[in-house]
Amino acid sequence: xxxDAAAPLDPAVRDALAALVRELAHExxxxxxxxxxxxxxxxxxxxxxxxxxxxxxxxxxVRHAHRLDWLMGALxxxxxxxxxxxxxxxxxxxxxxxGELAGVPVHVHRSQTVAGVEGRIRLAVEAVVLALASDGxxxxxxxxxxxxxxxGSDAYGGGRAWKLALAETIxxxxxxxxxxxxxxxxxxxxxxxxxxxxxxxx
Length: 202
What we know:
Blueprint: H1 11-45, H2 51-79, E1 87-90, H3 91-102, E2 106-111, E3 113-116, H4 118-132, E4 138-143, E5 145-151, H5 161-173, E6 177-183, E7 186-192
Parallel strand pairs: 2-4
Antiparallel strand pairs: 1-3, 4-5, 5-7, 6-7
Helix pairs in contact: 1-2, 3-4, 4-5
């Protein structure tokens, strides 16, 4: 009698999966811990807190809930890129919404529509903004480019790598590009999308 045995995972694949699981666990644990702390404070001392403090704690919960919702969408996108019709997309509006989600200021130098599937463009911009979000982080929109700059020297550390890889997969699939650049004390990620009327720029 013989039994079928599963082939062992390639060590490189196993290591990559383990790294991804660690990063995703970190991504889930931090907002959940913050939400739990805020909810516990409201439950234990809500009646004694000023209204402004209660409102602030509630806003923290809502913000992290939005980030968890984004994470779930991003995980689904790892299996299948969002579908949709290609059309003119307001890149500045998408970047500003991503900045609001992550608490990152967004400066619009030149607004321009770009050609693409709005769901994919939104996911790519949000992935980069959330990857680099930190004190001192800011983003700029200049035509078909979104630049996100943050203090530090390692663009791929601290759980950033999978978000940047997701963004790069999307923009290259649609004919754009992602570049990681550096300046003293800062890292920059530049997303370039296909301008309206030029669906395959690279």
